[in-house]
Amino acid sequence: MKIWRELRWSVVVFLVMYSLSCSLDPVSGKKTYNWYSLSDDVRFGKQVLDTQLADLHKQSKTYDTDTAELARIKEIVRRIARVSHHPDFPYEAHLANLPIVNAWCAPGGKIMVYTGLWDGPNALVNKRDANELAAVLGHEMAHANARHVTKALSRNMTLMVVGEVATSIIGAASVEGADLFGQIFSQGVNVYVPSYSRKNESQADRIGLMYMARAGYDPRAAVRLWERAAQKRGDRTSIYSSHPANGERAKKLRELLPAAMEAYEATRGHKSKK
Question: What is the Cα–Cα distance from 94 to 53, expressed in whole angstroms?
Answer without folding.
Answer: 9
